[in-house]
Hints:
Order of helices and strands: EHEHEHEHEHEEHEEEEHEEEEHEEEHH
Number of helices: 10
Helix content: 25-40%
Strand content: 25-35%
Bound molecules: flavin-adenine dinucleotide
CATH class of the largest domain: Alpha Beta
CATH superfamily of the largest domain: FAD/NAD(P)-binding domain
Shape: globular
Radius of gyration: 21 Å
Number of domains: 2
Amino acid sequence: xxxxxxxxxxxxxxxxxxxxxxxxxxxxxxxxKKIIVVERNEICNAATSRAAALMTIVRSxxxxxxxxxxxxxxxxxxEEHLGExxxxxxxGMMHVAASDNTVKELDHxxxxxxxxxxxxxxxxxxxxxxxxxxxxxDEVMRIGFLPGEAYCDPxxxxxxxxxxxxxxxxxxxxxxxxxxxIYNNSSVQGVKTSLGTIEANVVIDAAGAWAPIWAMxxxxxxxxxxxxxxxxxxxxxxxxxxxxxxxLLPDAQAYARPEGGALLFGVREQKSLYxxxxxxxxxxxxxVFSEDKGMNDLAENAEKLARFFPAFYETGIKYYVAGFxxxxxxxxxxxxxxxxxxxFLLASGCCGxxxxxxxxxxxxxxxxxxxxxxxxxxxxxxxxxxxDIDPFSDEWLEKCxxxxxxxxxx
Length: 410
Ligand SMILES: Cc1cc2nc3c(=O)[nH]c(=O)nc-3n(C[C@H](O)[C@H](O)[C@H](O)COP(=O)(O)OP(=O)(O)OC[C@H]3O[C@@H](n4cnc5c(N)ncnc54)[C@H](O)[C@@H]3O)c2cc1C
């Protein structure tokens, strides 16, 4: 074993938005205690910097809502702390329903908004069309609007967490790779890294798509799979006003938001692409997800999309972005303690919502790491909820990928 390099109260594997947020809350709530975040590349280089960054609060998965609300509170505090603006766009979100089923879902969602005291109202088709000139509402039956919803620059939010954490005393080590977990007698005692050993009272696995590799060294199977998320950004046009709301189109399994005078949009693939965690390269910046840049998926969904976005066929695509998110079969996160393994916590299985819930995940894990109770109910996110699984098997990976394909929108 290499010489001891450092000792710490808490060691976090991975400097994505989860790792940075945990470090922020831990240093804010527990001054005097030491936390180290180890990132093998640069902070927020992987999934975080690729996100479309819809910070959806009101959603059918109600377990996410308190976590997302915490993110909005964190943004205010981070901005105050740094004296800088995150330029979060409070654009609001339209939910567009064009079938009996989606009308029912929309009304249910508005009930959830009311339950969580979030502002909501219904829009006429003409109002919606005025706000989003690209949106064809001819076949639309009902439109709900949630003015409290926002999107942001995900890299900026991640680095705001990291910068505040550093100012509060966190140590963020970049260019350092965790190469193994030190695990004896059912207890995690630290990690081996490319720079030496770090002893820790608590280790948190927040390694994104790669998290299952490290958890497996303690015999823990994280019930998630890295599944590709992708979106496209059009060229600029007058029909895409900068201050328009985000739009969810469950009947097309699509979402869209403004992107500086252009439109950023994503669709659900009929068959989502996945990879085993141990086959993803350490740095995904040059990883080719598919040679066609998702164009086949886009072609598959073109008709459904053009029903609401008729200019789709004549609008040029300027950018394509893809990355891995950790998906689970039930669409819930995997966070918290690991039964039977002492001093080991997980922050994983983001299901394409990690930016939105980053505040809540960071606070919950910081409190667990300090030996306290989580301020949020984490029961739906438990690591053992699927029983014995093999997170590297094709059967499991396909099951998780199917969950993404079936997701209605967002
Ligand atoms: C295309 C796309 C669109 C998305 N859109 C949205 C959206 O609209 N809204 C939303 O909320 N979320 C969205 N997401 C999801 C969001 O990006 C993720 O949920 C979030 O970034 C997860 O953060 P993380 O910290 O878990 O993972 P990551 O950001 O991937 O961070 C994990 C880090 O761990 C590091 N690491 C791994 N192994 C090691 C090791 N051995 N040693 C040291 N470091 C290691 C990696 O280098 C990486 O930096 C989207 C994702 C993608 C890909």
